[in-house]
Design goal:
The chain is α+β, with helices and mostly antiparallel strands and 188 residues long. It has two domains: 50 residues; 111 residues, Pleckstrin-homology domain (PH domain)/Phosphotyrosine-binding domain (PTB) (PH-domain like), CATH 2.30.29.30. It is 26% helix and 31% strand. It has a seven-stranded antiparallel sheet, with helices on both faces. The protein has a two-stranded antiparallel ribbon with strand order 1-2. The two termini are 48 Å apart. InterPro entries: PH-like_dom_sf (IPR011993). Keywords: Coiled coil. It comes from Acacia crassicarpa.
């Protein structure tokens, strides 16, 4: 605990019976008390964050890390999207299915989500073909399309995780079950 405080400015007294005594001024004592109060306040704040995260994860239907990339669906009259199959823009994110929303966090310890998508905005959930990453690990994937044309593509090396998310979203969004996978390889 003392490592948290700055003890460099303390003056040390002479040795008496093999023990050293620190002589503190009133200002030094007040400074240490202030630092201790700050540490206790930070501890209380971190505990509140941990309790908040714990509550969300306990009540979440699904949660876990997946690789995500986002795309926009071309609007009528727009040129076709650029073929970006050679671009590796999969980013690991912590995803939580809680209540009527999907929450996307940068990491599992974040308090605020980076993005939120209400299930009522989801118009399509489908499977994508599996693909291999640079390390030759097979990735299984699915996509979520919102009514605004925003598309999340999610992948994981766990087929069970992808299947769980796919079925949960299809059920929660009340979409008809169509498990066909489009032909052709999925780009990285």
């Amino acid at each position: 605990m003392l490592n948290l405080f700055s003890l460099r400015s303390l003056s040390w007294g002479s040795r008496t019976g093999g023990q050293e005594k620190a002589e503190l001024t009133a200002a030094e004592i007040e400074s240490l008390q202030s630092e201790l109060a700050d540490v206790e306040e930070r501890e209380a704040h971190l505990k509140a964050q941990l309790d908040h995260i714990d509550e969300i994860l306990r009540s979440a239907r699904l949660s876990g890390y997946m690789h995500i990339r986002t795309r926009w669906t071309a609007l009528p009259g727009d040129p076709p999207p650029i073929d970006d199959a050679d671009v590796n823009d999969w980013i690991p994110r912590f995803i939580v299915l809680h209540g009527a929303c999907i929450f996307i966090y940068l990491s599992c310890s974040d308090l605020s989500p980076q993005d939120t998508t209400p299930l009522s905005d989801i118009i399509e959930v489908g499977l994508l073909p599996s693909f291999k990453r640079e390390d030759d690990e097979t990735q299984y994937a699915f996509y979520v399309l919102s009514r605004l044309g925003f598309r999340y593509e999610c992948s994981s090396s766990s087929k069970i995780q992808v299947d769980s998310w796919f079925l949960a979203l299809r059920t929660d969004c009340k979409l008809e079950l169509n498990t066909s996978v489009p032909n052709g390889p999925l780009g990285m």
